[in-house]
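Notes to self after the call with IL:
- keep both proteins in one doc
- input above output, always
- annotate only the second one for now

Protein 1:
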Amino acid sequence: MDVISQLQEQVNTIASVAFNTFGTLQRDAPSVRLSASYPEPPPVAASAAEDASSFAEQPKLMSSALVKAAKQFDALVAGLPLPEGGEEAQLKRIAELQAENDAVGQELQKQLGAAEKELKLVQELFSQATDNCFNLKKPD
């Protein structure tokens, strides 16, 4: 797997861990009174007290997984080759690649035009052949 694919996979992992962390925290967080004008949250049941003890560990585990994924991403980024020659050299290379891309695009357009002409010729010959078959004529 190339480095770019690994980076994309790592970004997906970070996003997944972050979404799961936020969702789990929202789902499992104990009720809290927001202001004095709101009623007290419902009392915590005995089984919920056990869940609360495991809830206290979840943010630590999830944050460590998130930090681990971020460090792996940073390690992959650090492994990328450094650009040579600075920004000016990169811009020059981009311009060269764009010119090459344009030249190849023009060549492909020419080939496409030739292929379309050939297709029309083949379709015309096929049409003549089918007409001859239906009319039981011998080919010229």
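Protein 2 (the one to annotate):
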Amino acid sequence: MEAFSTDYQHGKPTEGMCCLCTMEDITEEDQNYVEFQSYPSMKWQPAQFELCVVQQLIDTQFQQYVDRVKKTDCQAELRRLLASGPPIYVSDKVALPLAEEETDTHVCKLWFAMDGQERSAKLKGAVEGEEREKLWKELKEFIIVEGKEEGDEDDEKKGSGN
């Protein structure tokens, strides 16, 4: 994984910090603290997941997305998955919330306390540019064009009762 150098002074885990996934403590001693940077604000924040969970997301999130698109039998889920296209960068709305909700688009870098290195937040196997557009087009072929199947629910129907 590509490492970057920076003049930014990274922080340390706060007292009592724990991973929202594993509930393990995040400590200096365990060297499992991670920070992430949002683009374009370029603000750094502490991740609410420990190192092994963030690494697991990097290693699996792209392939899990592709597998879900290919295997789902729910057209509404498929439309939601395909709305923004194949992911490029690691994401988790709870553990890696974007610094500027209105303007930031993605997590661009990660910093691991374990080695003190910054690295790209790009997912393993993720594609960009023309290659991404080609994959997105292939995945869109899983949508049933004839219309909705019985039981499909769109977000617009769910929101109308409020």
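Annotation: The first strand starts at residue 3 and ends at 4. DSSP finds four helices and five strands in the chain.
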